[in-house]
Amino acid sequence: MAPFKPDPCLFLIFGATGDLARKKLFPAFYNLYIDNFLPASTRLVAVGRRPYNQDAFREQILLPSLKTFSRRADKLEQTFAGFAARCVYFQSDIYDPQGYARLKDLLRQLEEGRATGGNRVYYLAVAPVHFGRLVAGLREENILANSGWQRVIIEKPFGHDLESARRLNRLLDQVFAEEEIYRIDHYLGKEMIQNIMVIRFANAFFEPVWNNKYIDHVQISSVETVGVGERGGYYEKAGALRDMVQNHMLQLLAMIAMEPPSSLATGAIRDEKVKILRSLRSLNPEAVRRDAVRGQYGEGFIEGKPVVAYRQEKDVAADSATETFVALKIFIDNFRWAGVPFYIRTGKRLPVKSTEIILQFKALPEVLYFKEYGELQPNLLVIRVQPYEGVFVQLNAKRPGNNNYIVPIRLDFCQNCEAGVNSPEAYERLLYDAMRGDRTLFTGWEEVEQSWRFIDPIAKVWAAAAPLFPNYAAGQWGPEAAASLLLKDGRRWWNAPAAQQE
What we know:
- The chain is 35% helix and 20% strand.
- The chain is α/β, with parallel strands linked by helices.
- It is globular.
């Protein structure tokens, strides 16, 4: 079957010489080109401050980007010239008023003689502090006034709290309609995240037990071995709560917990996710102290190599109170999930890189096969998001031999474990969907608003009390309080083994 191609358009990337463009956006666009998903008249317009001419941009930015970060780099020798011909570099500072007039002229020239229909995508790959000037410049020069559709893609963080998110949204609303705003969360573009609804709603033996009658609890973990690296300045303002929990982790929770949508239309799916976010039990100060754990990594060892503490990282304060680890116990107050705890965990400088969703089912009555035949392990459904992509079910079965000893076994599927399997990157799917006008894997304003409503009370309590940091060594599974969060409930974290690392 031939690839479904979106409408042709001009795809503008502001911040084209930054890390996001080099590591994610250019490779994603190139991979779509290789797979024949781009119409012939679609053009990429890279807008940056550095004074490159076209040749310098292609040789010093574009080619190294694709060589290093594209999963299709083996095709470069045959395809780079054709792809580079579709890319145009435009040098301008977003605070230069004359730059917008020159950009308007360039876009008009690019659209002449090409059947783009005036369609445009504006990707704001710049810090949120620059959104206001950028959007105002586009409006003042009437760059947005064209005959086709227009869409704007916004990177996280979408605000720092609920009030700042509302201010940012009002700013965008002055220029773009809500259906034209694509708030990107790259986690939603990952293969296994897209698979969650299929696993749930396309298998008869899952949906009937996807509730509080059969599920004991849910664990959602997204952990990594790396520290903050060069992002210390950003992380000091965000922290793990705002950087990971407010968006990625709550999105995963919503997709696991949502009711079956009435259809696969974007609005129907978003409505169900918003219902879950509205149903999250708010954490008052007492609940924050009881059910919320924060941590910051100290010195330690990752893969046998010494690493510095967070407070020793570049652009980080020597007495920083910023959390690099968060664990929460969350309840959803609705009929399906009443009484089922959702434990979420995210952190840096942990032993492995892994994102997993684990549903642990309730234990059977202790009548048959207990004690005499071995300790029965709980039944698990594990959805692996990264680095391995797949799903497995843990069952109990008889061990081969003459006795009846029972051991856990796995029915295991991994879609990227075999050699030659090369799953598309998240940004490929998201850029493709934006050009198609499909907002399903993008975050709507109501989702953002409800997420901040849940996060703000936690952040407020934490801001009022000085933490004892650092409280876990790099290479450990976070602070001891995170383990106690489950132990006091008679449960434990299911930690991904080191063998699952890339």
